[in-house]
Amino acid sequence: MVMLTQEKCVACRADSPHVTEPDAGALRAQTPEWELITEDGIPKLSRVFRFRSFVQALAFTNAVGALAEEQGHHPRLVTEWGRVTVAWWTHKIRNLHRNDFIMAARTGQLYAGLAEAQPAAATQARPAKS
């Protein structure tokens, strides 16, 4: 089995096939921390990443943005004090594509790398500051 973190996104068109339910089940095995949500009838992969500061959350947001630009596939990013919420879906097909699972896996890998480099960056949630 090819690891999603080693794959690259492919260009999508409006008629690109979405991920089938059986395929999604197999792909979710490589993205277990991601939640499958539906907003306005569109399935999406969503995950909240926690940090000890706004600076760390912003650095992660920028790293995800750079990865998105590199792959030509862009998420919704919500950056707040101590957390970043990332949602992946394919806008052109208004559904999930394999690219979304690739990017979810790569985003998780990016977070794990940051946590290793800065152990305090992740794992501990603190009360939100305003």
Outline of this structure?
With 130 residues, the chain is of the alpha+beta class. The protein has helices spanning 21-28, 54-71, 98-117, and strands at 35-39, 42-50, 76-80, 83-88.
Polypeptide structure, described:
The protein has a single domain (about 20-115), classed as 2-Layer Sandwich (Gyrase A, domain 2). Strand 1 (about 35-40) and strand 2 form a beta hairpin. It has three helices and four strands; from the N terminus they run H-E-E-H-E-E-H. Helices cover about 35% and strands about 20% of the residues. It has helices spanning about 20-30, 55-70, 100-115, and strands at about 35-40, 40-50, 75-80, 85-90. With about 130 residues, the chain is α+β, with helices and mostly antiparallel strands.
**Distance between the terminal alpha carbons, to the nearest Å?**
45 Å
Listing every helix as H and every strand as E from the N terminus to the C terminus, the arrangement reads: HEEHEEH
The level-1 CATH class? Alpha Beta
Compute the number of strand runs: 4
**Can you tell me the number of structural domains?**
1
The CATH topology assignment is Gyrase A, domain 2
Strand content: 15-25%
From the alpha carbons, calculate the radius of gyration and give it in angstroms. Answer: 15 Å
**Mean of residue pLDDT values:** 88
| Helix proportion | 25-40%
Biggest sheet: strand arrangement: 1-2-4-3
Largest sheet: 4 strands, antiparallel
What do we call the CATH homologous superfamily? Transcriptional coactivator/pterin dehydratase
Q: Segments where pLDDT lies below 50 for 5+ residues?
A: 121-130
| CATH-level-2 architecture | 2-Layer Sandwich
